[in-house]
Amino acid sequence: MKLESNVLTVEVPSQWFYEWLEEHYITVLKKAIIGTIGPDGKLQYSIIVDRGNQSSQPMSIQLPQKGAKSTVQTTPFDIPEVQQNNKESQLNPNYIFDNFVEGDCNRLARSAGLAVAQKPGITSFNPLMFYGGVGLGKTHLIQAIGNYVRSNFRNKFVLYVSSEKFTSQFIDALKNNRIQEFQNYYMQVDVLLIDDVQFLAKKEKTQEIFFHIFNHLHQMGKQIIMTSDCPPRDLKGLEERLLSRFKWGLTADLQLPDYETRVAIIKSKMQNDGIDIPDDVTEYLAYSVDTNIRELEGVLISLIAHSSLNRVEIDLELAKQTLKSIISDIDTEVDIDYIQKTVAEYFDVNASALRDKVRKKEIVMARQVAMYLAKEFTKHSLKAIGMHFGGRDHSTVIHSIQAVEDLRDTNSGFRASLEELKKKIKIKAN
Ligand code: ADP
Ligand code: MG
């Protein structure tokens, strides 16, 4: 909206936008601001509260960048002076149970989470581990537990940390000879929330210290909650003794939301943001965006953006256009090489074999699937696709696509594999 002295003001159509930007783009924004305005550059948001009409001016509220404070807010082993911050929980207050929509996909995880939040360290769900693919609510849920405990048990020290941050803090401590301090800090925690433990893979030293902290906390009856992108049995590169402890408590998975849950999530997000959207739009979006909840949120954000920037109502037409513009972004970002690589990995064959004359059954199948996906995800002509597959002609491509479609329509196992592959490609494209 404006740049005055060193303050850049960005106007956003709602609180939710502001939070979304802060959550997903703050590093990029910070870099851009520091790069262009310099180290004193500041970001300020102006949130439209009322768009106004002829007789009244639009009204907006101004909020400083959330992260503005967090540059000085750091754990004590980085900067010893800020000891008073050592009870900082690092939680995002927006992640709470109230706005975590329940569905078949998350019922067990959510209720186990709530049970633990109500009785931290007392239930047999210790540790509690959530696992599931990206964007399915692991971070939201684990933080909801933290926020719940913080508001209901004021004397408990709740700490949220991602495994990456834990690792980098550990490395810093190691460099500065402050391992003891690091360990003591974590051993004071009453409820430790550690996100994405798959990132501890192959980091033996970090695992070792985590193992000690884990044992100490567990023995003292403190609560440990973790998330991971896969079940403990599939966590590669983690020490067996750590894995065996992960299995002591309860493991609950988060699955892809079904259609009804997607509808409920859209309604809840829109309601929280004070935006009304027609039922047919909700249904259309719930039907079309079936990958994960983060992606669903992304689409809602774009939709609100289109509506608010162009000052038009949200209707089915706009929803379709928005989705189309997002999907065509995907088209331009995925190339055939990437599709070949993904498909080859999936079927455990060599990507170069897809371009060779090899006629082995599993290669032929993988090649046909890759052609089919190339048609679906790129704008290349059949002829161009053929060229990418070792100079095959366009009738071979047509035949391959036909073969994949036939199999897709008759074999549900194959259909599921195809869906999974599409998801992988779409996720990458984002
Ligand atoms: P993960 O950590 O599994 O990758 P997140 O917890 O970051 O996923 O969730 C992605 C986005 O989807 C977040 O903005 C979160 O608030 C939202 N979300 C996930 N699950 C739900 C749910 N059940 N109800 C409402 N919002 C959800
Ligand atoms: Mg997460």
Question: Which short descriptors sum up this protein?
Answer:
430 residues, alpha/beta, GMP Synthetase, Chain A, domain 3, Rossmann fold, Helicase, Ruva Protein, domain 3, 4 domains, five-stranded parallel beta sheet, four-stranded mixed beta sheet, globular, binds adenosine-5'-diphosphate, binds magnesium ion
Write the layout of secondary structure elements.
Elements: E1 2-4, E2 7-12, H1 15-37, E3 42-50, E4 59-64, H2 107-118, E5 128-131, H3 138-152, E6 158-162, H4 163-175, H5 179-187, E7 191-195, H6 204-219, E8 223-228, H7 240-246, E9 250-253, H8 259-272, H9 279-288, H10 293-309, H11 316-333, H12 336-347, H13 361-377, H14 382-388, H15 394-410, H16 412-429
Parallel strand pairs: 2-3, 5-8, 5-9, 6-7, 7-8
Antiparallel strand pairs: 1-2, 3-4
Helix pairs in contact: 2-3, 4-5, 8-9, 8-10, 9-11, 10-11, 12-13, 13-15, 14-15, 15-16
Structural overview:
The two termini are 27 Å apart. The longest helix is centred in the first third of the chain and has 23 residues, at 15-37. It is built from 16 helices and 9 strands. Helix content is 52%, strand content 11%. The radius of gyration is 25 Å and the shape is globular. Strands 6-7-8-5-9 form a 5-stranded parallel sheet, with helices on both faces. Strands 1-2-3-4 form a 4-stranded mixed sheet. The chain is an alpha/beta fold and 430 residues long. It folds into 4 domains: 2-72, 2-Layer Sandwich (GMP Synthetase, Chain A, domain 3), CATH 3.30.300; 86-253, Rossmann fold (3-Layer(aba) Sandwich), CATH 3.40.50; 259-330, Helicase, Ruva Protein, domain 3 (Orthogonal Bundle), CATH 1.10.8.60; 336-429, Chromosomal Replication Initiator Protein Dnaa, Chain: A (Orthogonal Bundle). The structure holds adenosine-5'-diphosphate and magnesium ion. Residues 99-101, 106, 132, 134-140, 265, 293-294, 297 line the site of adenosine-5'-diphosphate.
